[in-house]
Request: fold
Amino acid sequence: MTARPATLKDVAARTGVSFQTVSKVLKGSPVNVSEATRARVLDSARELGYVPNAVARGLATQSTSAIGIVAGDLADWALSQFVVGAEREARRRGHAVLITSARGEPDDAAACVRALLERRVDGIVAAAPQLEHDCELAQLLRAVPTVSIHHVPGGGVSLVGSDHRLTGRLATEHLVGLGHRRVATITGPPDRRVVSSRAHGYRSALEAAGIEPDPALVEAADWTPEGGYQATLRLLARAPDVTALFAQNDLMAMGALSALHRLGRAVPGDVAVAGCDDLPVVVHTVPALTTIHVPFAETGARAVSLLLEPGRRRPECVLLPVELVVRDSCGGGVAP
Amino acid sequence: MTARPATLKDVAARTGVSFQTVSKVLKGSPVNVSEATRARVLDSARELGYVPNAVARGLATQSTSAIGIVAGDLADWALSQFVVGAEREARRRGHAVLITSARGEPDDAAACVRALLERRVDGIVAAAPQLEHDCELAQLLRAVPTVSIHHVPGGGVSLVGSDHRLTGRLATEHLVGLGHRRVATITGPPDRRVVSSRAHGYRSALEAAGIEPDPALVEAADWTPEGGYQATLRLLARAPDVTALFAQNDLMAMGALSALHRLGRAVPGDVAVAGCDDLPVVVHTVPALTTIHVPFAETGARAVSLLLEPGRRRPECVLLPVELVVRDSCGGGVAP
DNA sequence: CTGAAAGCGCTTACAG
DNA sequence: CTGAAAGCGCTTACAG
Reply:
């Protein structure tokens, strides 16, 4: 094992032709090569177990056929779905993907991007929230074609994502349609765009139903089940008359289910709960969670095709659709 | 943006030295270069925004400082934890990571490995269950240093993982210690090694307590919540006297909680449920799940350090410890 | 139809 | 202390 891999020259020597000729037939370019030599070359390549050297090719062509992903916390379920979609699409297009996962520390994301730039990736897909407020990082990213799922300060970068306002609106409309008037919400960290967009959707659905949004019914948390759990406890202590709850992601919604269970409040009997994301796992929470489906894998695929699409010129902004998935945590079907 | 990046020659020209000299100072090798020129070189490099070209370096040094990961389904939570740990360790050691996610189709994993070999990665970390039964794949992998979390037919590959027998034993002992005699188990697909190991642990714990394992109390599923849900339904229809249940992963345990809820069986009052993996989310299932903690991220980190550790010669086998985490789904604390 | 040259951006001995 | 040569494994015009 681990013997020196065969090179073009090895194949050439075995065939008795120049290595440039071997190069031509092996990359299948429609060049002028006689069928006879083509066949002989192919044979020796197979016999030698020739595996093309992509790094040499990359140097010669000035293109690595690789993209980089700079992710926030890869362990996040939504993000890993995104990566799956991105990897699938990249491979379909013959590109490799270099992955980096940036922890919270200040310059970690920048270090990731720099590593990717050294590797001369053809483009970068960014899925790191820190991007929204880090201008230096944003500047780094402009050195290479980039598509982000977060707004990048300073522009010049394509955006792809789902419609966050619609997400907030659909969930809230569903709750309101079921007759709820005291609808609380648990948001993510307030400085995030997705948070204000979903909150905007929440408020507009309330207002459309003639309900004045009540600031006392809004609690911020940190996207985690534990955060959702604590936020729910605070919320119900402050406003015991709440009958419905929209959590800005499924994990916090699960924390809410857990908190309500502990408080002895039945779901959906006493309090209806809606989440969003549609993690696979929420089909079997107790009770099964009504939520908004967000197409993470499709988003990843779309990000890559946007990045690699040949005709692409100026930065674009793509919004993918979301939809309500009714299960048990809000009670009955959709209102009329 | 996207201007041609500066090269060593650019920096050399601006400094007024040969590009080889620039190379020496820039890679910080402790070479003989006067402090004066060193400083000047560093200055021009900074002014030009020089970013070393890792692909050229890779060609010259015959080493890419990159490793590849071939993963099964990256969307799997445990696997993404593993990847996080691996990426962290790789970057700490100055290595990039190329990621590939193999779908189920027959030759997909092989295509992933081939892509990695073309890229000339320094080594591969394998986390793809298909490896256990695919000898061709295994053969491919032997072309480059590899560490796997699955047994690879034919040997020659290092293994790292957790102690699956212990996992099965700890969970079952806990249940038995609580006084249960009719302890069922939901396993993963029977052809997987981890499945037989955890089942072995389950049986040995039973036998140690003088309980004859009952084949009627074993159901196989597919690791998913839905699979666990259906398996639980089958199990309880067949053996209504079951009072405890050990699921071979947390997702299936969640499906079990959901099924028991639907059947109107209280957890842990009527049936105790234990899982394993310790997904972050199970802190807030209803009720909170008692489970076995499996150190996925540490496993990933260990796999990479095993791969990259200089002194490494012959294949090794590393088993990481697991431990019981008691929450609410089995009732009371640990038995005496 | 096939071959020889030049070049991609580096590193690594080897001279001066 | 610094420079010039050779080479890593390819691709891409350009000749024959």
